[in-house]
C-alpha cells in the first residue's frame, strides 16, 4: 500500500507539473495585472464549458488584480505562461471593452462582449503539431482600431490530449486588466460571444481525438478572429 501511495503521489506531482497558468503580461510580476486564478497553486484546468470559471477562472470573483497595464493600440503584448504550455492544443486570446462607469479592476466580464483577436492553428500531417506547444509566452497584437479605455484580455489554451470524449478537454485561462491608448476607435467586431455560452462540450474543436486517426482538418471553437 505504501508503494502504491508513493507511486500515486509521484504521478499526481508529475501531472500537476504538466499543467500551467497564465499569470503575467509583458515583463511584469505574476498576478500584478492578471487576476489570480483558482489554479494558481494546483495548476489544474477548467473542464466544464458551462462553468463560470470558463470566463476568467478567478480565485476570488468580484475582485480584480492590483494593477491595470497601459498598452498602445497596434503594439504587441506578451501573455506569459508559468512553466510552459506543455499540452497539445490551440491558443486563443479574446478582448472585451469595459462598460462606461466601471473599470478593468471592477468589471466581471459578463455578457456577449468578448471578441477573438488571436488564434493559432495546428500543422497537419502525420501528426498535429501545435505552435504553442512548449511556449512560455504568446505574442498578441492589440488591434490598432480599438477605442481607448479599459479592457479585459482573456488568454485561453485548450489542451486536447484527453479530449476524445465530452468533458475531456482541459482549459487553461486567465484575464489581464489593460488600458488601451492611441487607438483609432473604429473597432467593430462582427462576432461577440459570452463566457459561458461561447462553446459546447461537443464542439468539433473541443471534443476530438487528435491521435488516431490523425485529423485532416481542425476548426478552433468560437468565433473567427476580428480584424481592423
Automatic annotation (TrEMBL):
Cofactor(s), names only, from the UniProt record: Cu(2+)
Main location (coarse class): secreted
Gene3D superfamilies reported in the protein's UniProt record: 2.70.50.70
Entry-linked InterPro entries: AA9 (IPR049892), AA9_LPMO (IPR005103)
Single Gene Ontology BP annotation: cellulose catabolic process
Protein family: Belongs to the polysaccharide monooxygenase AA9 family.
Domain Auxiliary Activity family 9 catalytic: from-to ranges: 26-218
Keywords in alphabetical order: Carbohydrate metabolism, Cellulose degradation, Copper, Disulfide bond, Hydrolase, Metal-binding, Monooxygenase, Oxidoreductase, Polysaccharide degradation, Secreted, Signal
UniProt organism field: Triangularia verruculosa
GO cellular component: extracellular region
Pfam families, per the entry: AA9 (PF03443)
Compartments reported by the entry: Secreted
Catalytic class of the enzyme: oxidoreductase
PANTHER family documented for this protein: ENDO-BETA-1,4-GLUCANASE D (PTHR33353:SF10), PUTATIVE (AFU_ORTHOLOGUE AFUA_1G12560)-RELATED (PTHR33353)
Signal peptide (from-to): 1-18
Catalysis: reaction(s): [(1->4)-beta-D-glucosyl]n+m + reduced acceptor + O2 = 4-dehydro-beta-D-glucosyl-[(1->4)-beta-D-glucosyl]n-1 + [(1->4)-beta-D-glucosyl]m + acceptor + H2O
MF-aspect GO terms: hydrolase activity; metal ion binding; monooxygenase activity
Protein name (record): lytic cellulose monooxygenase (C4-dehydrogenating)
EC number(s) recorded for this UniProt protein: 1.14.99.56
Domain of life the protein comes from: Eukaryota
Amino acid at each position: 500500500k505504501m508503494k502504491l501511495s508513493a507511486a500515486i503521489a509521484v504521478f499526481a506531482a508529475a501531472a500537476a507539473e504538466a499543467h500551467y497558468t497564465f499569470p503575467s503580461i509583458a515583463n511584469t510580476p505574476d498576478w500584478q495585472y492578471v487576476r489570480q486564478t483558482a489554479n494558481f497553486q494546483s495548476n489544474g484546468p477548467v473542464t466544464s464549458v458551462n462553468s463560470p470559471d470558463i470566463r476568467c477562472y478567478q480565485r476570488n470573483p468580484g475582485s480584480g488584480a492590483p494593477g491595470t497595464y497601459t498598452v498602445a493600440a497596434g503594439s504587441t503584448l506578451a501573455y506569459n505562461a508559468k512553466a510552459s504550455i506543455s499540452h497539445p492544443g490551440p491558443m486563443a486570446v479574446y478582448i472585451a471593452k469595459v462598460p462606461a462607469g466601471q473599470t478593468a479592476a471592477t468589471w466581471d466580464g459578463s455578457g456577449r462582449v468578448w471578441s477573438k483577436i488571436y488564434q493559432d492553428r495546428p500543422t497537419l500531417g502525420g501528426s498535429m503539431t501545435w505552435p504553442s506547444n512548449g511556449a512560455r509566452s504568446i505574442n498578441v497584437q492589440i488591434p490598432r482600431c480599438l477605442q481607448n479605455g479599459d479592457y479585459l484580455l482573456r488568454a485561453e489554451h485548450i489542451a486536447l490530449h484527453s479530449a476524445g470524449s465530452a468533458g475531456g478537454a482541459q482549459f487553461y485561462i486567465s484575464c489581464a486588466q489593460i488600458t488601451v491608448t492611441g487607438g483609432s476607435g473604429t473597432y467593430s467586431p462582427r462576432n461577440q460571444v459570452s463566457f459561458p455560452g461561447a462553446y459546447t462540450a461537443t464542439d468539433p474543436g473541443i471534443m476530438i481525438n487528435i491521435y488516431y486517426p490523425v485529423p485532416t482538418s481542425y476548426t478552433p471553437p468560437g468565433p473567427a478572429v476580428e480584424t481592423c
